[in-house]
Amino acid sequence: MTDSCNIAVHAKPKAGKDAVMGIQTAADGKQEVLVSVRAAAEGGKANKAVCETVAKWLGASKSSVRVVRGDTSRHKMLEISVAEADVAAKLDSLPKL
User: FRET pair for 32, CA 20 to 30 Å: which of 2, 22, 51, 87?
Assistant: First the structure.
């Protein structure tokens, strides 16, 4: 059975490439994953690109990642329908920015 988990993301639209860059500390002191995407933040294009980029990074289907909070913000909460242990292992491998 696949469970799900949430991760905090800082989206960087109109970047040079689509990539999961690393983990950074936000102004409020919370950790979030920095995800750069080439798409512009208009009409949901950046949100879709963030979900697709994270799904590809996890080796999961595009439909397994969705934005649950922060549709119009760079600071988002993603729900990921992948085993939490698998997500945690991938997060541990990211560099600290």
Answer: 2
Q: Any idea where the domains of the chain sit in the sequence?
A: 5-92
Which CATH class, in words, describes the domain spanning 5-92? Answer: alpha beta
Which helix (H) or strand (E) is 31 found in, with range?
strand 31-36
How far is it, in rounded angstroms, from Cα 19 to Cα 17?
A: 6
Tokens representing residue 57 in the block: 């990074």
Tens of pLDDT, residue by residue over 27-57, are: 888 899 999 999 999 999 999 999 999 999 9
Torsion angle (degrees, nearest 10) of CA 75, 56, 94, 78: 30
For residue 62, give both structure tokens: 């595009």
